[in-house]
Write a structure and sequence with these properties.
The complex is a heterodimer of chains A (about 110) and B (about 110). Chain A is mainly β and about 110 residues long. In chain A, about 0% of the residues lie in helices and about 55% in strands. Chain A has no helices and eleven strands. In chain A, the strands form two sheets. In chain A, strands 2, 4, 5, 6, 9, 10 and 11 form a seven-stranded mixed beta sheet that branches. A four-stranded antiparallel beta sheet of chain A has the order 1-3-8-7, with no helix packed on it. In chain A, a hairpin with a 6-residue loop joins β4 and β5. Chain B starts with 8 loop residues before the first strand and ends with a strand. Classes of the chains: A mainly beta (about 110), B mainly beta (about 110).
């Protein structure tokens, strides 16, 4: 079946540094990938939609210069949290859509200290 | 996509059937009912989906009312590992450019 690999599963970084999260579709090509953010005891909220070879579309209130998304190939999308601050601490989840429908990554727990 | 309503939480005894309801009274004729679940600190996991017929797979059964305004996800023999938040989502199938919209879901606690 369709598998989406997300890496790293958790990361701790210092305030002001940048962190890159990778999302790979392992056995299918994903023309579209979605990035979600989830705060404790809340549901998943869409941050941005990433289309291969084009600029990402960001949801209202999500800073595109802070959350850089690159979808350079049909199997890889990356989310870079730039100049991270403690309020960026959250659970980030990617999802890929392709011929097998939708599959979610296992998530990345980001803690900014 | 149509909006769904689910109870915020439910308990179920281990080994018993867990019946999770979902209301989707504004569902359109071409929208499917999807169920996902999210175990703590993991990504959502697909469970099942259907249009109007009842569906069953190795994980669960999906019962959709004839008017399609509500549905029930049934876990026939709940285990402790089924403790999770369950999301009912209605949307057009194969619309791969459209994301899933997650509501608050139902937090199912399976009790020993």
């Amino acid at each position: 079946g369709a598998v989406v690999s997300q890496h790293p599963s958790w990361v701790i970084c210092k305030s002001g540094t940048s962190v890159k999260i990778e999302c790979r579709s392992l056995d299918f090509q994903a023309t579209t990938m979605f990035w979600y953010r989830q705060f404790p005891k809340q549901s998943l909220m869409l941050m941005a939609t990433s289309n291969e070879g084009s600029k990402a579309t960001y949801e209202q209130g999500v800073e595109k210069d802070k959350f850089l998304i690159n979808h350079a190939s049909l199997t890889l999308s990356t989310l870079t949290v730039t100049s991270a601050h403690p309020e960026d601490s959250s659970f980030y989840i990617c999802s890929a859509s392709g011929t097998y429908g939708y599959t979610f990554g296992s998530g990345t727990r980001l803690t900014v200290v | 996509d149509a909006k769904t309503t689910q109870p915020p939480s439910m308990d179920c005894a281990e080994g018993r059937a867990a019946n999770l309801p979902c209301n989707h009274s504004t569902i359109s004729g071409n929208e499917y009912v999807y169920w996902y679940r999210q175990i703590h600190s993991q990504g959502p996991q697909y469970i099942i989906h259907g249009l109007k017929n009842n569906e069953t797979n190795e994980m669960a059964s999906l019962i959709i009312t004839e008017d399609r305004k509500s549905s029930t996800l049934i876990l026939p023999h709940a285990t402790l590992r089924d403790t999770a938040v369950y999301y009912c989502i209605v949307r057009v199938r194969d619309n791969y450019g459209q994301n899933f919209v997650f509501g608050p879901g139902t937090r199912l606690s399976v009790l020993p």
